[in-house]
Amino acid sequence: MNSIKPRNRLNIALAGLLLVLCQSLLAQPGRPIVPPLPEGLQTVEFYSPAVQRTMKYDIVLPPGYAVGEKRYPVLYLLHGYMQNYTVWGRNLGAAFYARSLGDLILVLPDAGNTWFVNYASSDEGKDQWEDYLIEDVIGHVDTHYRTVDDRAGRALAGLSMGGFGAFSLGLRHPDMFISVGSTSGALNFARDRAEAIAEGKILDRNARSPEQQEAIDRADEFISDIIDIPGFSKQEERTPQGVDFATQEQALAYDPFQIIFNVQKSNLPHFYIDAGTEDGLVTVAREFMGLLLMNDVPFDFMQSRGKHNSEYWRRSIGHMMTVQYEIMQRALGNRP
User: What pTM was estimated for this model as a whole?
Assistant: First the structure.
């Protein structure tokens, strides 16, 4: 691939994502109703050496899993900022689509507000969130479930923060994933952090308006009981107190716009990208699509009416999962 300097830089601040999510919470009066668990979904608790704590993930097993010895491809679906491991499967329809596809295992990890990166330094505990996902979560799933433990049978995707995580980690570990997907992805997170470091700006993740803090406190009263991970249930606990990137180089090492050039074209995963036309992040989605176009890299791109909210993600998830499922099935030789 030729070296191309990405254009149309979009400075989406962390505060912007926080504002959108807080507005969504404030728009929902009263205590939310806990939906029943979807069919085939169960919660798994395990210990992660990378972050030195007990963590959880939801897993959706296909119909018929209990019978026979068949192995299944796996899609790892990452949540967004201020979300958790329950959102995709229980609230956004992912469990329904996984069961409909019939022979797919869906894994929904929890990573708090960490952006799925290994922190340069941590004030408390250990914040190696890339290692947590790549080594601990995937290792636990492959050990305890009948997975296709191979690149051809493993895909990674996510929304917003999770879309960034999917592209960043998928490109940092191209030998592990046949497809990476992003819906409403904050793909410019590491690039913006590198620019902020160069300008000497300090990122304050705890800077919130009274309205934002009110929304977070109200959400914590309800959501922390559902998450139920000791020391990792409330938003303050789920936001690492440390430094994600100490240098520009560290930030750019996670920037999908840069690290794509570290991978041989023949080893690149398949890319799926989508965003709503009323979502500010659609601009960065189009920018990444342009990068793929200029370098003749295959991809799937979709944009449709929608904002950065649950309504859009409930519509986007079925399409993204179906495309990635087909990519895995073809890689496994299960299609004509």
Answer: 0.91
